[in-house]
Amino acid sequence: MYEQLKLDNQVCFRLYTASRLITQAYRPLLDPLGLTYPQYLVMLVLWEQDNLTVNEIGKRLGLDSNTLTPLLKRMEQDALVVRSRGIVDARQTLVSLTKKGRHLESQAKDVPQCLAQCWQGEPLSEKDAITFTEVLDRMIKSMKEK
Questions:
Q1: Contact partners, residue 26, CB within 8 Å, separation at least 6
Q2: Which three-class secondary structure state does DSSP give residue 101?
Q3: Would you say 61 and 41 are in contact if contact means Cβ atoms under 8 Å apart?
Q4: Given 2, 15, 57, 93, which is the most exposed site by the fewest CB atoms within 10 A?
Q5: How far is residue 52's CA from residue 47's CA, in Å, rounded to a whole number?
Q6: Using CA atoms, how far apart are residues 3 and 10, in angstroms rounded to an integer?
Q7: Between 36 and 122, where is the model more confident?
């Protein structure tokens, strides 16, 4: 067997496994807020900057509008966001937080800290977390440029 084809030698498998486990760890934190993980990501973007187009949100999250539109429809049904046509360009759809969506931010403020407490054993040091983030950012940037 080729060493490069062993599952344990695949960086992508480790990333996939970590992503899946982190998403699972979010579930009990987000369920009380009525959010799925993808909805939480949309809310993070809108809490940073409200009134964005679907394309701007998609660009931030790396999602196309075919994936994002059903997600936003559900969030609109849940009264978290409102979608409207752009004033300057009616082809654009603007997404804005509702009062309920803005209020949810204060309820979600402890989610990142609670998630960090899910780590068993020794958590990442601040230095390791920064290095890990930088490596992931370089990897993402490199993959997007191809």
A1: 37, 40, 111, 115
A2: helix
A3: yes
A4: 2
A5: 11
A6: 10
A7: 36
Q: pLDDT digit string (tens) for 103-115?
A: 999 999 999 888 8
pLDDT of 134 higher than 80: yes
| 3-class secondary structure, 92 | coil
User: d(Cα 66, Cα 119) in Å, to the nearest integer?
Assistant: 34
The full set of domains in the chain, from first to last, is: 3-112 (1.10.10.10)
- DSSP string for 57-73: HHHHHT--HHHHHHHHH
d(CA 36, CA 52) in angstroms, rounded, equals: 20
Length of the chain: 146
* pLDDT for residue 121 is more than 80: no
Residue pointed to by tokens 């062993």: 6
Closest CA to 72 of 50, 42, 101: 42
d(CA 139, CA 93): 31
The partner residues of 94 in beta bridges, in order of sequence, read: 53, 84
Confidence of residue 120 (pLDDT cuts 50, 70, 90): low
Tokens 């997600």 — which residue? 71
